[in-house]
Design a protein that fits this description.
heterodimer, A: about 120 residues, alpha+beta, N-terminal domain of TfIIb, 4 helices, about 20% strand, B: about 500 residues, alpha/beta, VC0802-like, Rossmann fold, nucleus (chain A), Multifunctional methyltransferase subunit TRM112-like protein (chain A), cytoplasm (chain A), Trm112-like (chain A)
């Protein structure tokens, strides 16, 4: 799972959960997969992201030196930050780990890089 | 307005119902100006006017239906008139055409006839009938610099070939369509496929319908083996998928290839994208139940391309609270795989349209298939949503009495759940009976009847053979031998 996807996922499918975001991420195994830097795409995806969760992901991935805690303005003009965001969001692949619902503590496992967001019959 | 240029579009006669809508989608996607001069869209040759040559080339750079595009020099229904027009065209446009006729330009003339066969000699005669063309270059059949096309169209019905050709066309080849991609992305050589993987041609057509552009975010909520993501990524989309089937998403389900016993370790949707050089376009796949969305309300997609399960070859499932829960013999620490319940097609499409209305950007497109029993198809039965415009709808025949339709919706209003535009939001008319139930129960004859009828026919044949003194071949052992030979 890439950290961009982490920013899209919620646990609001669980009965009674209102926001379910951001999920608490734990990484036990990760890998860095280099990919082509596309500044336009990073810029296009930014409005879809929640910065606090971007920063949260940076904390878990130990990249807080690269990512400011508050979203700076005019990121589009800051090529260096775009590159760092690209690395954080698209190049770090969480192979094993878990996502935890902030309201109920329900844990969603990540296996072989794929998060399993399925709920049990009694949770929906 | 004098700059418009005419082209012959030569289409493959396959998925004929899809070509008009593909043409219109591509014209809209590139913002081109074009006028279709051929009315009968089932014809394999259209004459189309584009604002300029570059527009025409843009269209050809994406079209899957298009075989080739030829700049039109002359078009007529009668031979003498055709030759007159060709002569006139070359004389009046000599300034712009001269370069193709110069001495250094090697050339080749292709004679293409549709619905009527001509021998090689007859074809050469047709070429020689145009000896007035001031061609100076040398013939080069393998790698010509200029390719001229002479086309005769003899109608569509092979049982009623007209006495005269309906269209005679001549022009210079300017571009090929993208049909080479069909072979390049063929399922035959794809790393990871499943029983319901979409073939390369249709998935490329779907991506064109969705107007996937460079840098778009594309989502497939019923991703399966990711066959739709492959074509979307090929056109430059960044792809994200979800599916309820854990084994499928992890590529641990039963293999579909007859020669394959177990899935290989490195099979995955990501491996498929890597195979076609689109690894950078892979965002993620997630195991998730579509009936209960997990996506953040803020996320918006440029395109949603999907082929939902119809309940025939792939089950329609969701996780649901069960009224009666069986006694649980498993301990807390054991892995629990939630059991799934039936997800009716009607509520599935309702959810899909609602999800798309919420999560598409304005102007973004949803492209999906919907199965039908041909005899009771009625446009009124198509799902509708206040925020989505149905912009295209084409049919593909599946079996004798079933077909599926490729629907393209475009989001036309911003979504606000609090203020529905007019009354209810989603309308999915209830079909009289469930597609699956009807498919298996209301066939012209049931499976049992069919089996009995076939067995009776075989028995009859056996008795007749015996009467004629022939020894019947053992069909079963023959089949076994064939299978053995295949695995040696």
């Amino acid at each position: 799972m890439k950290l961009s996807t982490y920013n899209f996922l919620t646990s609001m499918a669980i009965k009674g959960v209102k926001v379910g975001f951001p999920l608490k991420l734990t990484i036990s195994k990760k890998e860095v997969v280099e990919s082509e830097f596309n500044p336009t795409f990073v810029e296009r995806i930014l409005p879809k992201l929640d910065w606090s969760a971007v920063y949260g992901a940076a904390q878990v991935a130990e990249l807080t030196e690269d990512i400011p805690s508050v979203q700076p303005e005019n990121i589009g003009e800051n090529e260096l930050l775009l590159q760092k965001l690209h690395h954080l969001l698209f190049e770090i692949d969480v192979l094993e780990g878990q996502l935890e619902c902030p309201e109920t503590g329900r844990v969603f496992p990540i296996t072989d890089g794929i998060p399993n967001m399925l709920l049990n019959e009694d949770e929906v | 307005m004098g700059n418009w240029r005419k082209f012959i579009l030569w289409f493959a006669q396959e998925h004929v119902d899809f070509r008009v809508q593909e043409f219109e989608s591509l014209i809209k996607m590139f913002g081109l100006q074009a006028r279709r001069l051929t009315e009968q869209t089932r014809k394999p040759f259209w004459v189309v006017e584009f604002r300029d040559t570059d527009s025409a080339l843009l269209y050809a750079s994406r079209s899957i239906s298009l075989r080739a595009m030829i700049e039109l020099y002359a078009h007529s229904h009668k031979l003498p008139e055709f030759h007159q027009r060709l002569r006139n065209h070359v004389t009046t446009n000599w300034n712009s055409l001269a370069e193709y006729f110069r001495v250094e330009a090697s050339f080749k003339i292709v004679v293409e006839t549709y619905n009527k066969h001509f021998s090689q000699r007859e074809k050469v005669e047709k070429i020689e009938s145009m000896d007035y063309l001031p061609i100076e270059g040398a013939v080069n059949l393998k790698k010509p610099e200029v390719e001229w096309w002479y086309i005769e169209f003899w109608g569509l019905d092979p049982t009623a070939v007209p006495p005269e050709p309906e269209d005679i066309l001549f022009g210079r080849l300017v571009a090929h369509g993208q049909r080479h991609l069909i072979k390049e992305l063929s399922l035959k050589h794809r790393k990871f496929i499943g029983n319901t993987s979409m073939d390369a041609q249709l998935s490329l057509l779907m991506a064109n319908q969705a107007m996937v552009r460079e840098g778009d975010l594309v989502f497939d909520p019923f991703v399966g083996t990711g066959s739709l993501l492959v074509s979307a990524a090929k056109w430059g989309g960044y792809v994200l998928g979800a599916d309820i089937d854990y084994m499928m998403v992890h590529a641990r389900c039963r293999p579909s290839r007859i020669t394959q016993k177990v899935r290989e370790k490195d099979e995955s949707i990501r491996a498929n994208l890597k195979q076609y050089g689109c690894a950078d376009r892979y965002m993620d796949v997630v195991v998730a139940d579509f009936s209960n969305p997990v996506w953040h309300p803020r996320i918006s997609f440029d395109c949603i391309i999907t082929d939902p399960p119809y309940g025939i070859r792939e089950a329609t499932e969701k996780v649901e609270k069960k009224a009666s829960v069986k006694a649980n013999t498993r301990s807390e620490s054991m892995v629990h795989y939630p059991s799934t319940s039936h997800y009716s097609l009607q509520s599935l499409y309702g959810d899909l349209l609602e999800f798309s209305a919420k999560h598409l950007r304005l102007g973004g497109r949803l492209v999906c298939w919907i199965p039908f029993h041909s005899e009771d198809y009625d446009p009124k039965m198509l799902p509708q949503h206040q925020h989505l415009n149905l912009v295209a709808n084409s049919e593909q025949q599946l079996t004798g009495n079933t077909a599926r339709r490729l629907l393209t919706y475009e989001k036309c209003f911003e979504y606000s759940p609090t203020e529905p535009l007019l009354g209810g939001i989603t309308q999915v008319p209830t079909p009289s009976q469930d597609f699956r139930e009807r498919y298996f129960n209301n066939a012209l004859e049931s499976r049992k009847e069919r089996r009995m009828r076939k067995a009776e026919l075989r028995e009859q044949a056996r008795v007749e053979m015996n009467a004629r003194g022939k020894i019947p071949t053992d069909g079963r052992s023959k089949k076994c031998d064939l299978n053995k030979a295949r695995f040696v």
